[in-house]
Each structure stands twice: as C-alpha cells, then as structure tokens.
Amino acid sequence: MKRYLRLLMMLGVIFTFGGLAQSTAHAEGVGYSVAASLPKNQDDKSVTYFALRVKPNQQQKLKVVITNSSKKKANFEYGVNQAITNNNGVIDYSNANPKLDNSLKVGIKDVIVDKKVQKITIPAKTSKVVSLTYKMPAQKINGMILGGFYVRKMNVSNGQSSKGVNIRNQFAYVIGVRLRESSAYVGPNMKLNDVKAGQINSYNQVQANLQNPEPGIMSDLKVKAKVTKQGESKTVLSNEKDNMAMAPNSNFNYSIPWGDTKLQAGDYTLTLDASAKGGYTWHFVKNFTITQAQINSLKNKINTPQQKNYFWWFVAGGILILLLIAIIVYLLLKRRRDDDDDYYDDDDDNGNN
After folding, report:
1. In CATH, what number is assigned to the domain containing residue 219?
2. pTM score, two decimals?
3. Is 245 helix (H, G, I), strand (E, B) or coil?
C-alpha cells in the first residue's frame, strides 16, 4: 500500500513541476548572472531595473555586477539597446540596430557616452562591476527614455562575437533602463499607418502598422480587427489579441493571418478597435488594396490556419490529473481503512467465540 502511495505522489510531482525543472536547469547552464547596482536617484524602489529620476545635463554611471559562476574565465560584451515593440506586441530590448520610429526624438543611444560595445574578461567564480555612462540633453525632455543594458557571453570557441545581440541564438541578460525628468504621467496614443498584405515566416498576413508616437508606455493592449471587402459587410478575415504592450515612440505590424483563406486581388476595408490600460480606446477604419502583383509574390508560400491558444486547456488538464490522483489516493486510503475495520471485526468475532 505505501509503495502505491509513493508512486502516485511521484507522478503528481512530475506532472506539476516537470516543466519548471527543465527551465531551471537551462538557466543554471548559462554560467553567469547580472544584477543592477541601483543608485540613490532610483525613483521606484520596488523594481530591480534602472528606473531613474534625472535632470537636464545630468551625467551618471549605470553600474552592473556580472558574476561568472563557471569554472573557466569568460569573455563578455555589454552595451545598451533601444526599446522597441516587436511584431508580437512585446516591448523588446534585444535588437542592436532596430529601425527607429520617426517620432523618437531622443533615444537611449543618444544619451549614452560609451557608443561602442564594451568588452571584459572575468575569471572563474568571480564578480566584476561594469558601467556605462549617460549624459542627458540640456533641453528638458517629456516622458521617458526607455532601453536595456544587455550583457552577453561571447563565443569562447573563437573569442569573437557576432554583431549585435540575437537572443534567438545566444542567451543574453537585459536590465531595463528608464530615464525620466518628471513624475508627470505621459499617456500613450495610437495611430494606424499603412495596411498591406505581407508575410511573417512565410505565413500570409494582412499587416496593420500601429504606432505609439508618445514617450509613454502602452500596457494591457488589446486589439480586435476584421477585414471585409470594400463596400461589403461580410467578414473575410478576423483576429483578436490581448496582453500586448508598446514601447514609447515605437510601432509594430499587427498581423491578421490569412489562415486557410485565399484572398483575391481587390479593394478591402480594415476595421480595428484597440484598448489599453488607463481607459484608452481607439477605433480605426481604413481602406487598402491588394494588387495582383502582391498576390503573385505571395503564392506557393506556406498558408496555415490561425493557431489557437491552448494554454488554459493545458492548465485544465493539469488540474484534472491532480484531481484524479487525489481521488485515487482517497479511495486507496478508504479501502485500507475498510480492510482494517474488517480485520478488527474478525478479531472481535473470534474473541466472542
């Protein structure tokens, strides 16, 4: 009986924590860690990134501690990247040379004195402090400057690193850097720029370029969009996505997958509704045209149905598995109690005889 109970408990632990063990091992295998050394002008003590209150002409060092926990010395490179919004609707600090939005007047690289990527060698089991210096413009700025202080372990096989930072191929730590001169809230805004047919990873899409031209973060962004033929009400394509965000002074292509629909050349209308934290709402209606030349350039490409989010199905499945395990354990324990009661009843009967 005890052996069965131990087995069931082990199964429950595997189902519950199996994925966590894998991700933890991956993180430990990186061999280094970073931490920001927060200065006195940190205006949000609850966060571990640089959230600084600054002044015009102010100059200051941003200090980061790099700990090489591996058994060999390692080479690292570090610098800053501008915060942008990627095409998944996520604020991204990983791109070394992104295409900047035309509304961005002063970016993080404009105020960093150390323009070149910095490099350092750290012995095994050792920590070192590295720094980058920023200098604010003389003219007062509104809103915030947002970027990321990144640290990347260089390729030890040849001692060289690729240009920029590509987190798809190599692991990099990024610590956010938010510089602002006032606590006054600067709200986001949204503009709909061009709408066109395009592709992402060979998947056909209708792409609506959304822009936040203000120096304020847009969070809890939800977008609902549909495409109709111009002058008609029947929906040809539709898409809805939430839990997105936009960096200050940035833009991204919100994509509406074609799925298994094959659009023809012609005139279409995009209707898009968006909402964000703070009670912000936007409504856009924009006509656009898909030409035969565009259709020809997209042909013979992968065209798959829209992917569904099965996260809550997995959560429900996990809960169901744990519930079944609990029921089995309960029944086994109940059976054991019943067996014990029968045993004592038999003893009583024998004693009376």
Report:
1. 2.60.40.10
2. 0.74
3. strand
